[in-house]
Design brief:
Blueprint (H helix, E strand, L loop, with lengths): L2 E3 L13 E3 L6 E3 H4 L4 E6 L5 H18 L3 E7 L11 H10 L6 E3 L4 H6 L3 E2 L1 E6 L4 E5 L15 H11 L12 E4 L5
Parallel strand pairs: 4-5, 5-6
Antiparallel strand pairs: 1-10, 2-3, 4-8, 7-10, 8-9
Length: 185
């Protein structure tokens, strides 16, 4: 497992739209379907990545906390399922149930959405404000498997807290780090 960091899409980028199947509800969803007037968090994750597994419990708690404040969340898996069958849509459904995901979990079969977001790793986080402009991209927090640091979500929370009160998000944004997206050959 090679550690890969975020590519850091330029701040101010308008949220790339998508139309992808949700492996939980079975419905197709677009950015417009999941966006919030407050803030929308787009997350690139997958089932098998140890970096995602490490944060799952803390992520679900963070989503629960911020959904109550009007923030919407959506997760997307873009991995090549031919070479990584554990990330196939049917397995995504099972994983979402087992991990208690409280957000849509979309499948990006063509990988075009990951490319539009310049996503590089799992997990990779993007926050868009109510005008669909990118205000944060990077890590959930500094915790990594084996680091001994607890999963707090502090980086994502600080950015969301700023957006929710109308303050600028801090310009120092650390890239996320995890497994590289499994691109099709």
């Amino acid at each position: 497992m090679a550690l890969k960091e975020s590519n850091m899409l330029p701040l101010g980028t308008k949220a790339p739209d998508f139309n992808l199947p949700d492996t939980i509800s079975g419905k197709n969803m677009s950015f417009q379907d999941v966006k919030s007037e407050m803030a929308t968090v787009v997350m690139f994750i997958c089932n098998h990545c140890p970096y995602v597994i490490h944060i799952n419990e803390g992520l679900v708690a963070l989503v629960e906390e911020y959904k109550e404040l009007g923030v919407n969340f959506v997760a997307i898996s873009s991995n090549d399922v031919e070479n990584y069958p554990q990330d196939a849509p049917d397995k995504m459904t099972i994983h979402a149930q087992e991990a208690n995901y409280n957000f849509p979990y979309l499948y990006d079969e063509s990988q075009e959405v990951a490319k539009a977001y310049d996503a590089a790793c799992t997990p990779d986080f993007y926050i868009f404000n109510g005008s669909d402009q990118l205000v944060y991209r990077g890590q959930l927090d500094g915790s990594r498997p084996g680091s001994g640091k607890p999963v707090t979500g502090e980086d994502l929370k600080a950015a969301l807290d700023a957006v929710l009160v109308g303050r600028p998000v801090a310009s120092l944004q650390r890239p996320s780090a995890g497994c590289g997206i499994k691109w099709k050959r």
